[in-house]
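Problem 3 from the worked examples.
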Amino acid sequence: MADTQAGPPADTSADTRAGTSARGLAGKVAIVTGAGRGVGAAYARALAAEGAKVVVNDLPASADRTPTSAQSVVAEIEATGGIAVAHHDSVADFDGARRVVQTAIERFGRLDILIANAAIIRPRFLRDADEHDWTDVLAVATHGTFHSLRHSVPHLIEAGGGTIIVTGDLVTDVHFPRNAAYRAAKAANAVLASYAAEELRPFGISVNAVNPGATATALHDDYVASLVDHAKSFRAELGTRVAAVGAALPPPAAPETVPPLGIYLCTEEGRRITGRAFQLNGTSIGVATTRTEISYLDPDVDVPAGWSTAALAARLPAWLAGGPGAAAAGQS
């Protein structure tokens, strides 16, 4: 899949080439979901600083949340001369997401940018989880992303194109205990973003995933606190993997390290990039891929009926234990 699309000519002015253009999103209208704190709040502030008008979406008061988190972010934006409005519907609800989008249209007259960032976490082992520990997480992080995208796209098409950024998660084979629902939701979003990029390419709408690593947010802190007796072994596993590449385990990055890439992807030049999954590790930027090199184990002889249990028992365990080298030798 190509990662660029036709679009407006790139601005080659000195300011843009140097990355120093002032208020480069002036006149644009953005929605940021899950924007009351953490990465979402950092996105909202950064978009406003670049001149965009921002709908700051987050839930209203609850036991574990600042009562006016979205309004607080709006107040910060307005204090620095920006323009923003708070909205408190849940994007987990299809009509709630529609009302978020409608707020942008009614207040600002258009929509150019969607940052689909809303997510929650319910750390549980699968053996202990109840129905809502699973469905609540997917309702916000996955269904909420689809709901927001579905209601935004017609307005982005009407505006002549736009930008959708989906907040993903670390792409790694590290096991994150008590985190199956969150990781499953984010994996689904990665596929959704990839499909949306292809479907919306003809309309000049770019869709990319931006996947932060460990970031100093309340969600991160809630997850780490849930590990209890697993925290030491989990950090030890991470430390071992990082040391293998000659580095040290870094502290969580500040939320403000995430938006700069997203802001660039919202510019006229950045909109030419689509269908990518960017991996952030602090200030380092990588590109993840869903493409997988698949190795195959073939029978020694042509067996029309397929493998027998005895033949699998004789060959499969040793083939798997042999690692990539052995797998490559059996690749068809």
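Problem 4, a separate protein:
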Amino acid sequence: MSKQYGVVLIGCGHIGQQHIEDIYYRDNIRMVGVVDQDPARAAQFARRYAAEAWDTDYRPFLTRRDVDIVIVASYVDSHLPITRDCLAAGKHVLCEKPIAGSLGDALEFFNLVQHSSSKVLIAHILRHNRSYQTIARLIADGAIGELKAMRMVQNHHALNWPRYKRLMEDCSPHRGLRRALSGRDAVVFRRIHPVGRRLLRQDRRRRPPGQLRRHQCPAQQRLRRIL
């Protein structure tokens, strides 16, 4: 039998669920534990995905020799301290994107990984998608000309508006994706699910008039300057 890896999931939210649903039933995976600040949610995940234990604190799991891999699916501002603790304990890490909320924290994260013997993977899953790899190659080869604008469509549900708004604030995919594809910035025209658009309009109505005008159509304004 191949090696069985002991895994701990930190963060029992939507993204954490996507991670654990894809691995908990595999023969080479043993869910040692799940962690969340909400004890009820952590306990629910433990029951649902057959984790051996749950906790609101991830640190006790880092002292266990049967834990090989830690999945960090918590909020962005916790990625650096959690990863720092995991690497200090000799654990391998799968960390959600983005790695940090500031350039300083991102550089510290990078340096930690560079000087660690553990393996660290950031969940930039689209970089492993053959369609995106083909697009990046076409752009790099000049087959479709210089990239100046991209049109992106998102279909994330926005029924849980506080969660979705935090997601957009913390890890908007547009800049990272256009840089991954082209190696440079480009203007992106975005479309969001109709529910999300309605909630965004409601949120904008609460802004001061001057602030609202600055957010009305920045992509088109940048495009006019570029062209």
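Solution to problem 4. The chain has two domains: 5-123, 126-226. The chain is about 45% helix and 15% strand.
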